[in-house]
Structure formats: C-alpha cells, structure tokens
Amino acid sequence: MHMTRLLDNAAIRADFPVASKMLYLDSAHQTPLGVTAKLAIEDFLAESFEMAGPKPKWLARVEHVRGGLASFIGASPDEIAYTKNTSEGLNIAANAIDFNAGDNVLLIEGDHPNNAYTWLNLRRKGVEVRFVKLSGEVANAQTFAPYVDCKTRAISLSHVTFHAGQRHDIRSIGQLCKKKALYLVVDAMQSVGVLPLDVKDLGISILAAGCHKGLLVPQGLGFLYVNSSLESLEPVYLATAGLANPPADFIARPDDVTLRAGAGRFELGNFNLPGIHALGATLGLLENIGVDNIEAHVLRLGDRLIEHLDDLRIRLVGPRDATERAHIYTMALSPDWLAYFSENNVRVSPERDGIRISFGIFNNETDVDAVADLIRKRL
Ligand SMILES: Cc1ncc(COP(=O)(O)O)c(C=O)c1O
C-alpha cells in the first residue's frame, strides 16, 4: 500500500490522538504514544494483573521482537542486544573495544553530546578523541580520511543529526572503515524507523539507538547491534544474562564465566518488558507502512516546508538536498518564537541555530501549511 494513502487515511492519524489536539512537530524529541503502542502495553499490564506474569510467554516475545528488530535493520537476531537507550549502547561498545593508550577515535564536531562523552571518557585509558569539522553539509569518507592515521581505531557519528537534520553518508564512511580496518560506530537514534537502514549494506560495525522516536515506543528501551564478526569484543559488565551456561540453581560458578555467543553477551538482567511488547506492535505498524514510504513521506513534507520557508525568506539551517536530509528541519528563527509556537498549541523544539520542526508518520501536508501560516501571521 502506498504511504500517501496510508497517511491520508484517518486511521493512521487516529493512531496518534495527540495529532488532533495540537500541531505536533517534535518527533525528533519524542514521538507521542500511539494507540498501537498503548494497546500492546495494556495487554502486558492485563497479563501482569490477571495472572501475575506469564514469564515464559513474555520471554518468548522478547526473542520474537529481537528477531523483528534484527530483520528491520538487516541484521540477524544474535547480533542484537536490548539496552535502555542510545548512550548505554554506545558506552557498551566503546568500552568493549580493546583500545591501547595512544589510539584515537574520530568524531564529528558538534555531534550529539551523548556520543562525544562516551568516547571522551576513554581518555582515562589514554585514548585520543579527535573532533573533525564538517566541510560540506554532511560527513562522508572524505571528511574523515585526512584525520585517519595508524593509531585510528574507530569512527563514531550520528546517522541523522538531531540539531540540523543532516543525513551523513554512512555508506562511504563504511567503505573507508573497511579499507582501513576501523570500527564504524553509528548512533541511529534519529534515523531508525524513519530511513531504511541496512547495517550490512552500510558497513556498520556497531549501532546504538533508543526506541522512543522513529520506533514509536515510550522512553527506556534501546538496542545495540554488534556485527557477528566482532565476537572478540568483551563486555565490561557481566550478569547471568551474558553467560553461555547460566547456572540453573542460581549459584554462581567461578570456574565457568564463558560468555554467551552473540550480542546477548552484552545484556544485563531483566528486560524492559512493557517497552518490548510495545515495540513488537509498533514494528508491525512500521513494516505495514514500509520504511521507504516513511522516508519518502517525511521528505515530501520537508520539500513543502522548504518551499514555504523560501517564500517567507526564512533560512533553513540544514541541508536542502533531499539526499542529505530526512525528517528534521531547523528554521533560523530567534528563540522568542518558541513562546509564540507554544501559545498557538504548536510543539517544536529550540535548537542551537534556530527552531526545529521534525516530522512523524502522522504528520501531513495540512500540518506543514498550518505552521507556515502561523509564521506568516507573526512576520
Ligand atoms: C542523535 C541522538 N543520539 C542520542 C540521543 C539521546 O540519547 P539517549 O537515547 O541515550 O537518551 C538523541 C536524542 O534524544 C539523539 O538525537
């Protein structure tokens, strides 16, 4: 089914009741909870309430959703670990890499601070963190190549940036990393569920994301992809969940701490079950719509917004080229606009260079025209 039809369909918009209560243009901050996620969580609550938890059934669902998540990003289930958010995934990855003092890692200047602090913390081990300046609108292999030397071990960056919506050229960076035997670590918080994402095709070694934006579930659930060729990476933390042979009698065996195969070795303790239940349902919704259709939809909304901004003579902070952007558009407006939007029941976010609009699957052309009309009124 084509996205335009689906999105014009009242049913999809009705899945997000907030869309009828306010002009919600802030999915890069948090996607509002939809009926699909809410019903899945309610099912989970009913199960807890009525039978104090069918745990084997829940754990089977955890594995089922792991499989769904894996196929959603072109991975295999044993390459996926559940986490609580992007930062946790990035930290697990950064601390698993066997850095030596004097090694370096390359980041983009101004990228999300959670990605930067993950690596800055490794300075304790003598790792050098090099911040690379963007020369064009987006980063590609040429952006990093001049900074790579024999001590470079990893490149880490966001797929789509939260502040100006740049969509970095991960594929070309993946090719550079393959050639130079570097780890490519990607923060996909903004892109997963919005852009098609195939970790193998893009050459990603490790990917971390949270699930509360494009994946449409409440905060507190994330995931980590670790390529199966990286089995030698060892977790810094260890719990029973990460063991190959967890003791059935719950008495630790000091002589057997063999790690579980696959990314599950990075998992710790019990799972965020309500979040995972919701994710099972929202992955179904996203697959039904098609992520390539979601990409096309948010780009179309972006085209329309850019037309309005040109007409209003407001500068777009990020890229204009459709291949370099996704669902995030920052308008060069001063911070005082925020109160105006708020008074008019419009949810947007302040950003470092202006006011950010970000689209979700429930937004439509009418939303774009409405925000443009509002801006025109004040101008
Ligand atoms: C690119 C990016 N990375 C990370 C985060 C958040 O990190 P975490 O999931 O650890 O809260 C955000 C925003 O919430 C983001 O936009």
UniProtKB/TrEMBL annotation:
The lineage of its organism: Bacteria, Pseudomonadati, Pseudomonadota, Betaproteobacteria, Burkholderiales. Keywords: Aminotransferase, Pyridoxal phosphate, Transferase. Signal peptide: none annotated. Transmembrane segments: none annotated. InterPro entries: Aminotrans_V_dom, PyrdxlP-dep_Trfase, PyrdxlP-dep_Trfase_major, PyrdxlP-dep_Trfase_small. The keyword Secreted does not apply. GO terms for molecular function: transaminase activity. Coiled coil: none annotated. This is Aminotransferase. Residues 59-332 form the Aminotransferase class V domain. It holds the Pfam family Aminotran_5.
